[in-house]
Amino acid sequence: MTSRRRRDDSGVSSVELVLYMPLLMFIIFIAVQFSLVWFGNQAASSVARETARSARVSGDLALAEREGEAYADRLGGGVLEDADVTVVLVEGNRVRVTVTGHAQEISPIGVPTVSETVEGPLEEFEDTQ
């Protein structure tokens, strides 16, 4: 009868941890960066909506652009960096607002620029008397 020696399993968990931990950290890193880009896109959308609202109500595109840039600055550092607000008149009675910028980055590689565009008609008030 042949006797088999039982193998010792000590140290296997350490080896598995060394092999899987970099992959787990990379997945967490990607998830956090994706969340930051999504958050930056939401911030750009908010700035575009508020700027379009201002432009539609006041009709003053330069004032709306300044208000949009001020709103982007008030969002706080890191949410939407280098925000560029563009307000243009389209078809004579519509306004289009485009906000572009950079979301917070934890990696300088592969982080897209966030951009949002909002378009709507200018408000026209009529005197019914």
What does this protein structure show overall?
It is built from two helices and three strands; from the N terminus they run H-H-E-E-E. The chain is α+β, with helices and mostly antiparallel strands and 129 residues long. It has one domain. The protein starts with 11 loop residues before the first helix and ends in an 8-residue tail after the last strand. It holds the Pfam family TadE.
Uncertain regions spanning at least 5 consecutive residues: none
Euclidean distance between termini CA atoms: 112 Å
Mean pLDDT: 87
> What structural category do the secondary elements indicate?
alpha+beta
Strand-residue proportion: 15-25%
Number of domains: 1
Give the number of helices.
Answer: 2
* Dominant shape: rod-shaped
Number of strands: 3
Spatial sequence of strands, sheet with the most strands: 1-2-3
Keywords:
129 residues, alpha+beta, 3-stranded antiparallel sheet, 2 helices, 22% strand, transmembrane helix, TadE-like_dom, Pilus assembly protein
Q: Briefly, what is this?
A:
This protein is an alpha+beta fold and 129 residues long. Helices cover 47% and strands 22% of the residues.
Helices and strands in order, then pairings?
Elements: H1 12-58, H2 61-74, E1 81-90, E2 94-102, E3 113-121
Antiparallel strand pairs: 1-2, 2-3
